[in-house]
Design brief:
By secondary structure, the protein is α+β, with helices and mostly antiparallel strands. The protein has one domain. Helix content is 34%, strand content 32%. The protein has two helices and six strands, in the order E-E-H-E-E-E-E-H. The strands form two sheets. A four-stranded mixed β-sheet has the order 1-2-5-4. The radius of gyration is 15 Å and the shape is elongated.
């Protein structure tokens, strides 16, 4: 019998909104392996397929879905830099 993997997660998107993410089989396993090997909890998670449904943002995996953490992309690095700068400003107050 083949193994089946399912990943269901609610991720915080911005200050007050969340996204529901679902991944199955090979993509779920690849995400788990990447997450575990990353060494720390990523601050930025970027998925390439985004589909709005019923007023909430759902990220549904397909065979074309790619997942990137933190500064693995230029956009992720830019967002991470902004996030870290904002945190540094908050800590100084």
């Amino acid at each position: 019998m083949a193994s089946s993997f399912i990943l269901l997660a609610d991720l915080k998107a911005g200050r007050c909104s969340t996204t529901a993410e679902s991944m199955f089989d090979a993509l779920a396993l690849a995400f788990r392996n990447k997450f575990e090997s990353y060494g720390s909890e990523p601050r930025i998670v970027l998925a390439t397929t985004i589909n709005p449904k019923r007023g909430r943002l759902y990220l549904n995996s397909t065979s074309e879905t790619h997942i990137y953490f933190d500064s693995e992309t230029a956009v992720g690095k830019e967002m991470l830099d902004k996030l870290l700068m904002a945190q540094n400003i908050q800590q100084r107050r």
